Amino acid sequence: QVQLVQSGGGSVQTGGSLTLSCADSGYLLSMSCMAWFRQAPGKEREGVAQIDSAGRANYADSVKGRFTISKDNAKNSMYLIMNSLKPEDTAIYYCAANRWFCDLGRITEADFEYWGQGTQVTVSS
Which residue of 12, 61, 80, 85 lies most exposed, with the fewest beta carbons within 10 A? Predict the structure, then answer.
């Protein structure tokens, strides 16, 4: 079965950096698409970044130029490298995987059938 286990959350000050990890249970190469979502208090869950099996990626406008999504196939892991963090980046972050489909035109929550447990990122002023 597919299991996604997250790590790397924490608290930083404005302008700091964090890297989130999402460890797949050996199925990374079988996934067409992997993504990061986040949900802030009182807000809807939003797509942050997405990467397909060829390594092509797309990002939400709010994180372009600051966040990078990447994969390490040998480690069966996906990462979200977050730089220049802002208080508005504070949220619970979730990794997700889609075995069959990847639309780089949009990050759509309903497309993803596998989800990590979520990890808290807090950015203080």
Answer: 61
pLDDT by residue (tens digit) across 94-107?
Answer: 999 999 989 989 99
Cβ-Cβ contacts under 8 Å for 99 (sequence gap 6 or more): 2, 30, 31, 32, 113, 114
> What one-character-per-residue DSSP string does the chain give?
---EEEE--EEEETT--EEEEEEESS-GGG-SEEEEEEE-TTS--EEEEEEETTS-EEE-TTTTTTEEEEEEGGGTEEEEEE-S--GGG-EEEEEEEESS---TT---GGG--EE---EEEEEE-
